[in-house]
Every structure is written in C-alpha cells, then in structure tokens.
Amino acid sequence: MNSKKETPRKAISRRDFHLLAMGTALAVATPAVPALADHHEDAEKAGPDLVSDVKSNSLLLSQVAYIGDSEREGQQCGNCALLIVNEGEYGKCGLFVEGKVPTTAWCTSWVQKREM
Ligand code: SF4
After folding, report:
1. With a 6 A CB cut-off, is 109 part of the ligand 1 pocket?
2. Which of 3, 91, 100, 106 is the least crowded, having the fewest Cβ atoms under 10 Å away?
3. Euclidean distance between CA atoms 78 and 60, whole angstroms
4. Residue numbers of the domain that contains 29
C-alpha cells in the first residue's frame, strides 16, 4: 500500500489555460522588446541604410556606375532631379526602392535638378 497521499489533480479551466498561455507568451516576448529598441538606436547611430548596402540593389548600382562620392564637379545626388526626398546629408533616390543615397554620391542617371 502506498503511504503517500496523492493530491487530486485539479482540472484547469479553459479560461485559466488561456491566461496561463498569455502570461507565458508575454514572459517570453518581453525581453525581446528592449533588445529591439537597442538595435534601433544602434542603427540610427550608424546612419541610414544606404542603397549600396542593400543586396537587391547590386545589379542596378553597377548598371548606373553608382559611386558614393561624386568625382564630377557640380554633379551629385544633392542636385539631381531624381532625388525625390532630400534630408540634407542623405536622400531618397527615385531609382532605388530600398535605401538612401548620400547627397554627395553620383551615378550615370544624374540629371540636373531645375531651379524653381
Ligand atoms: S539618379 Fe541622381 S539621385 Fe539617384 S543615385 Fe543617380 S545621381 Fe544620385
């Protein structure tokens, strides 16, 4: 005969089960939030994603002979008509879906921006 007295298993309600599952999910997910915030801060310190860092841009970059620092006087992304957003040091070029260009960069698609 077993001398230990077994405690009866308590049935867990569906509601308790869901609360327990949500608590477990939150406990697992919570440490990731500060890590993501740190990653975002690091990314901002390092500057924006450049077109030259985006792997899917590599073919187009070579087709337009893109260079990060223009070697042509008076021709750079900062005064190119295809620069659709100019944020000062960087901008968004209409040629590239992802990434930004330094306003000092250049490529063979450069077109003089009209002064208004
Ligand atoms: S098209 Fe103009 S803005 Fe875009 S990379 Fe070439 S020079 Fe820069």
Report:
1. yes
2. 3
3. 19
4. 10-46
Query: Which CATH number is 86's domain given?
Result: 4.10.490.10
Examine the domain organization and report whether 95 and 54 are in the same domain: yes
Q: Answer yes or no: are the C-beta atoms of 69 and 104 closer than 8 Å.
A: yes
Ligand 1 atom 6 nearest Cα: 107
Instruction: Give the total number of structural domains in the chain.
Output: 2
Which ligand 1 atom is the nearest neighbour of the CA of 51? 5
**Lowest-pLDDT choice from 22-36, 47-61, 64-78:** 22-36
Please report whether residue 1 resides in a domain: no
Same-domain check for residues 58 and 40: no
- 3-40 confidence digits (pLDDT tens): 556 655 666 666 665 555 555 544 444 444 444 445 44
Maximum Cα–Cα distance across the chain? 98
Q: Across the chain, what does the average pLDDT equal?
A: 79
Q: Does a structural domain hold residue 15?
A: yes
Q: What is the pTM of this model?
A: 0.63
Atom of ligand 1 lying closest to residue 106 CA: 7
